[in-house]
Amino acid sequence: MSAMQIFNSLSRAKAPFVTVEPGKVRMYVCGMTVYDFCHLGHARMLVSFDIVQRWLRQSGYQVDYVRNITDIDDKIINKAVSLNQPLHAVTSFYTDAMHADERALGVQAPDQEPRATMHIPGMLQIIRDLQDKDLAYQTPDGDVNYAVRSFAGYGKLSGKVLDDLRAGNRVAVSDGKRDPLDFVLWKAAKPDEPADSVWDSPYGRGRPGWHIECSAMSRELLGQPLDIHGGGPDLKFPHHENEIAQSEGAYGGQLANVWMHCGPLMVDDEKMSKSLGNFRTIRDTVSSQPDPAAPDYQVNVREAEMLRFFVVRNHYRSPQNFTPDNLYNAQAALDRIYQTFNNTGLDVPASIDWSQEYEQSFKAAMDDDFNTAGAIAVLFDMVTEANRQNSAAISGRIRALGAVLGLLGQDPQQYLQSPTRYIKRDGQPSTAGVLSESDIETLIAQRSEAKQARQFEKADQIRAQLKEHGVELEDKPGGLTQWRRA
Question: What pLDDT does 476 receive?
Fold first, then answer.
């Protein structure tokens, strides 16, 4: 276990991973604010930390993985008001939709999935403890704010210096604040807010600020310090910085020993986000006709695994650029592995033998800050060797290692016969209509009859017709014809 190295956003360096309690990992990751469908940037976060918890378990750790749901927030309130629905109806719908996306991407459920609204008492306790230490104060308008300049360690995670910061888009300013950089812990209720968005408290009717939620949930469920605290790249400041100020200000010590942040998903050098309007949802990417009125949807399993592969083939900390070409490239690369399986057959070992050379290289990559890019490179070295030797045994080892990453578990023939929108033909995205399996089988039968009747020109015409629709044929001994979409 000691061989594992993790990059710590707090120290800005890689270091050996040492847990508070030997053999056990307490891991908290900031999850979704459930007011809309998840986009591909969210897919990157979900898959990245799914890989982290999978590898920790594979490495022998007992993991308690907590990923929260923010179900009270300005955006959620605005959505509920715009739809004329209760808050819980909005959050339940989008929570179910998020779970559908997770299932599509093979993201395992966290061990605990707390919702902010179920932890209001814990938040109020932290606020009281902060007040007792003169780190929080109530304003004339009823809000309770954190006194940022009273906490000496503010800025240690993000590297920001208080005097260099200015009130801007991420810092709400009100006349009641002692300092423009102070942030809200408890928001006083406004007359026009929905009744189900406020709670009674010693500070009057109101609701929690965003940052206090995670301080309360992580402390109640995992204690302090956490072994790992993770989240998306945009959470380092102010959210995680404010969590540190709250938790360490109230209780001392360290909130987390290791801070992990995945890299951003970029579109034309801009972060993919709803606020920029450049986002693409997970469901639109892996389902041809998702119903916007339903949280669940029919998943194209070939496209869904491609999307997970698209995320996994990059190191979690690196910026990742999204273009449609990236999805075509990911589909082609994943198809190559499945075609190898189809060609060689599969002889999957009962367990992974980590003493073998390829397996050692795979493990070394994963132990080096979860370097999935390096691990995927090892798999492709194995693909080359499996094809060279026509080895079902090597293909089986590839599948076993792929399972560690949540990949390569489908039946090869079924996978290759599944339709996908992410295939290019002659360098261009295909515009040909997708033939159904029954139509393909009918044409293959007609071709077989033509060949038996020695009508070879007709047989060639049928092959060309199928190829035009992206269907490749492979004639096997005994008159059997296999097909795949390519």
Answer: 80
Q: Provide the β-strand partners of residue 471.
A: 485
**What pLDDT does 174 receive?**
56
CB contact set of 22 (below 8 Å; sequence gap of 6+): none
Q: Which residues of the chain have pLDDT under 50?
A: 167-171
Q: Rounded CA gap, 108 and 117, in Å?
A: 23
Distance CA 284, CA 245 (A): 39
How far apart CA 240 and CA 181 sit, in angstroms, is 15
Amino acid at 474: E
pLDDT at 275: 74
Straight-line distance from the first to the last Cα atom of the chain, in angstroms, rounded to the nearest whole number: 42
**Per-residue confidence (pLDDT) for residue 432, from 0 to 100:** 59
HEC assignment per residue over the chain: CCCCEEEECCCCEEEECCCCCCCEEEEEECCCECCCCCEHHHHHHHHHHHHHHHHHHHCCCEEEEEECEECCCHHHHHHHHHHCCCHHHHHHHHHHHHHHHHHHHCCCCCCECCEHHHCHHHHHHHHHHHHHCCCEEECCCCCEEECHHHCCCCCCCCCCCHHHCCCCCCCCCCCCCCCCCCEEEEEECCCCCCHHHCECCCCCCEEECHHHHHHHHHHHHHCCCEEEEEECHHHHHHHHHHHHHHHHHHHCCCCEEEEEECCCEEECCEECCCCCCCCCEHHHHHCCCCCCCCCCCCCCHHHHHHHHHHHHCCCCCCCEECCHHHHHHHHHHHHHHHHHHHHHCCCCCCCCCCCCHHHHHHHHHHHECCCHHHHHHHHHHHHHHHHHHCCHHHHHHHHHHHHHCCCCCCCHHHHHHCCCCCCEECCEECCCCCCCHHHHHHHHHHHHHHHHCCCHHHHHHHHHHHHHCCEEEEECHHHCEEEEEC
pTM here is 0.93
C-alpha dist (Å) from residue 282 to 1, 61, 116, 312: 34, 31, 24, 15
The rounded Cα 187 to chain-centroid distance in angstroms is 30
Confidence at residue 461, expressed as pLDDT on a 0 to 100 scale: 82
Question: Residue with structure tokens 């540190």?
Answer: 244
The pLDDT, as a whole number, for residue 448 is 81
